[in-house]
Amino acid sequence: MQNSKSYFVLPNTAFGLSSEEFSVLAYLLSIPTAKKRVRQQTIAEKCNIGSRNTVTKAINSLLAKGYIFTKIRTRRVNYWYGTNIYYLNEDAVCDFSKGYTLIQRSVFEYGLSPAQLKVYAFIAKSINSKLGYCWNSYTDISKGTGMSRSTVIALIHQLECRGLISKIRKMRYGCPKVYSDNVYYIRLKRKKRIKKEVQPRKDCTSQKSNVNYNLQFDNNTEPLICQVLLSDFLQTRGSPKYEHLYITQQVSHRKRKVSKLNLLYSSICRILREIYSCFSSKKSLRNRIRRKNKAPP
Q1: Pfam family example for this protein (predicted)?
Q2: Residue 287 phi/psi, 5° resolution?
Q3: Tens digit of pLDDT for each residue in 162-178?
Q4: pLDDT tens, residue by residue, 58-116
Q5: With contact defined as beta carbons under 8 Å apart, do 171 and 179 qualify?
Q6: Which of these three, 78, 109, 140, is where a domain ends?
Q7: Is residue 203 part of a domain?
Q8: Which of 19, 159, 165, 245 has the fewest CB atoms in 10 Å of its CB?
Q9: What is the three-class DSSP state of 172?
Q10: pTM, whole model, 2 decimals?
Q11: DSSP secondary structure string for all residues of 240-251
């Protein structure tokens, strides 16, 4: 499940606004801070509005309707105009008399136009929380958004092609040849997790080719160690300043065990070789004696 911070609350009274006013108000509500400091160019890019003049008209209209409490124009050090700061009117924004709708903050990353965003938000508002879908007709959506029926049909087709909603046509109960109202689902887009590539550590145990083992197995010797050239060890760790020196590192417990087994194996092989050589020498001596005895006088 996604975190509650990935959603913002949109009052249902905002559906009475125009498409540009609705998208600008929704983007300002998606900013989590109380002080909305954002450029008009950024609002135009996020809301997919053509020009900044349209954004300015929508902001002035929201100021007149009471959704934006005040707008402050900042000044830079060189007395140039800076980024605007907006404060929303809590009485208008938090007016939940007609209910509210939870919208994803990532909806502005899909590149939706203001009209598409308004239809998408209306479908999200109409979805039943228990069933997970809504069954509003084109006429209901056109009345709720203030658009024509043909415009709503085209916008729903565009949202369906983008993969944001899914539409299912259901037959009327008892009349298999007659279609009833459409059923709409919201399809949430989730970001794919990026797997980090873990590079193996270059240490004494991993670099087998650059390690020279000097193993001793006397009872009075110290724990086993391996000697590694400092130039090989500091190949990725810094400057090879002391290439003529050697460093020692402790061999892991697994290396000790393997080395002891190798020593035992080599000693057993050496003993077997000696036994075989002794046996073969005795056998060759017997054969020589037999040949001498069998030889004619």
Answers
A1: HTH_36
A2: -65, -40
A3: 989 998 887 777 776 77
A4: 999 999 999 998 888 888 777 788 888 999 998 888 888 888 999 989 899 999 999 99
A5: yes
A6: 109
A7: no
A8: 245
A9: strand
A10: 0.61
A11: -TTTT-EEEEEP
